[in-house]
Structures are given as C-alpha cells and as structure tokens.
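Two proteins were folded this term; both appear here.
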Amino acid sequence: MSSVTNALLLVCVAFLLAVGQLLLKAGVQTASAMSHKATLPALGLSLVVTWQFWTAIMVSGFVVLLWAWILTFIPLSKAYPFVVLAFVFTAIFESVFFGGQTPVKFFVGCSLILVGLLVIVK
C-alpha cells in the first residue's frame, strides 16, 4: 500500500478511537441521568442498557481489529505515533458535541503535536 493510504488508515484509527470515547461519554451521561445513585454498581447497571455504550464497545472492537491488521504491514514504531491524533480528535469533538471548553493553549499544543507527528513521519 502507498504511504498515503497507510497514513489515512492510521488517521482513521485515531478518529474511531475518539468516536468510541464520545459514545462512551454519551452513554455515561444517559446512564447518570437514569441512575439516582452515584455509585459504581448503579452507574454500571444503567450504562449497560444504553445504546451508546454498546455502540462504543462495537466501535472499539472494530478499532482493535483494524489496528491488528494495520500492524501486519506497518511497523509499530511508525504506526503508534498516529494514536496521539485520538487525543486531538477527542478534545475537539467534545467541544463540538458536549460543549466542552477548549482554551487557546490547547490549539497551540495540538499544533505542536501535529508538527511532531510530521517530523516522525518524514
């Protein structure tokens, strides 16, 4: 496969990792609203009946399989730095979908992460 295709697959892994985290957060919010007690067992019981939780599990499982397949043709030392993009995607998506606050220094840090990733990849 071409290096562009490899990079796109790795970005896809990071993106899907972020999607899984957002689904999990949505499930936790739904479960918290259903559970009147703030205990771990009560949250767990409420969480397992949410569609977001099960979708997060399915997305996460797919990502593990995709990652395993990618590692058959990309060395781990080349692939793993792309995982840091999940941090960037997750924070941006949280701002968009959950109204999280994203300070300017976050974007400065993301820029540094992207520059670092470019240095590693080149």
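Next, the second protein.
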Amino acid sequence: MRLLRDLRESTAFLILLAVTQERHTRLKTLADELGMTVQGMSDYVRRMTDAGLLQVVDGEHRATRKGVEVLQGRFLELKGFVAESSREVSALYQISNRLIGFIGSIREIAENDQEV
C-alpha cells in the first residue's frame, strides 16, 4: 500500500484531509497541526497546487475537486487494505487457535501415555 509506505504520499493525504476538515488561512497553523516546518509545508502546498490538488480561495487553503477525488480514492484504498488485512489477521487467529487446541490434545495424549 503506497499510501502507508511513501512519506510524501502520506503527507499529501494528511494535508488534503486537514484542509477539508478545517479552514486554514496560514501555513503555520497547518504546519503546526501536522508537525511540520512552515518551509516544508510551503513546499508541499506549492507542489500540490501545481498538481491541481489545492487552491487558495478567499485567503484559505482548500482542496480542489481533483484534490477531494484523490482524497476519496485514497480513503477507499485504505479501507480495502484494512478490510483485507483484517481478514488475513482473522484467518491467522483462527489457525493459531486450532494449533493451540492441537498442541493441547498432544500434551493430553502424552500425559496419558506417561501414566500408563
């Protein structure tokens, strides 16, 4: 999953999320919210604006239609990843429970053999 492995992708995702949830008129408040420097945020905002993901409207940084579509797409990817991972973890949990039961049965047989 690229979103979780690529720091730039994750940061862009968080910026899009932040500007869709709250009004941000200053890069400093946005940078502080995401734990970034103002210069780092400025670089991201510039690249994302050039890519058509962000715009400044009435002094506020906002996601464009394309930015919202990208954000929704990333959410769907993340949802799918979480669902698939949950299924895999559940399957592993079921297998581990069966193995624990099997080991318990083997121990019981071994204990019974020692008694005889």
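Helices lie at 2-5, 7-21, 27-34, 38-50, 65-115. The chain has one domain: 2-115. These notes refer to the second protein only.
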